[in-house]
């Protein structure tokens, strides 16, 4: 791979898995159809051929069993990377994740480490129905003991996964599936940002847009349209949801005086609520408008014909920007 090659997020994740497996023989990849098929999105394509069936394991269709097995392997010194085929398929394993995986380290008073990474393709935009287009990140971010990260570009996809695998904590690695084929530049020799550090991807002075995963691209598009209208919008890619880098976000809001938080998940009890509360506490005297939130509706994920109405897009985010600037 060229040092500055422009590649898709899917290929960046594949390259990241390869790099981790080459660096550490204890790294295993396991999940439904990850081996011979290369995954339903072909993200693990070719890994079983190159590393063998003992390290790239096609599992039964049993998410609880997959995660439970990964926990056992981690306790024996391995570093399993589990793929959940679709976001909505993770719930049969929810008990294993929140009552076992997240608690083992604390339960053992720090004597036990469980370095399991759970890869979850998440969110919508691919014309699929419920259980294939969910955004369950807030459910996991609420659970102490889990780290939650999500990349929005190829470089982060490549580096953040390797950082997650190399760490000793359980990590939920959410992959924005509708961005799998988006291309961006990857520098394989760069020094990556810390795993849980937010990044300002577009500088501005009038308002801050905070987003993560699939919505970062939407917010960057919003910033371009706003600039044509004479509005200066700063875009912050949160990258991590547990922990959240509130310091970077706070600095941005203290500069702009306004914040709009954007995510695909429903607004009701979503990650935006926690962010809005924290920033209001930290930046009360700097805010020129209430923190606004843009997201999905509090309803089951709709059929594909209604998907564009459900997902927050350019117009809905621009409307929130206009409302914030009108105060």
UniProtKB/TrEMBL annotation:
Residues 7-182 form the Transketolase-like pyrimidine-binding domain. InterPro entries: THDP-binding, Transketo_C/PFOR_II, Transketolase-like_Pyr-bd, Transketolase_C. It comes from Streptomyces siderophoricus. This is 3-methyl-2-oxobutanoate dehydrogenase (2-methylpropanoyl-transferring). The keyword Oxidoreductase applies. Its EC number is 1.2.4.4. The lineage of its organism: Bacteria, Bacillati, Actinomycetota, Actinomycetes, Kitasatosporales. Its cofactor is thiamine diphosphate. Keywords: Oxidoreductase. It holds the Pfam family Transket_pyr.
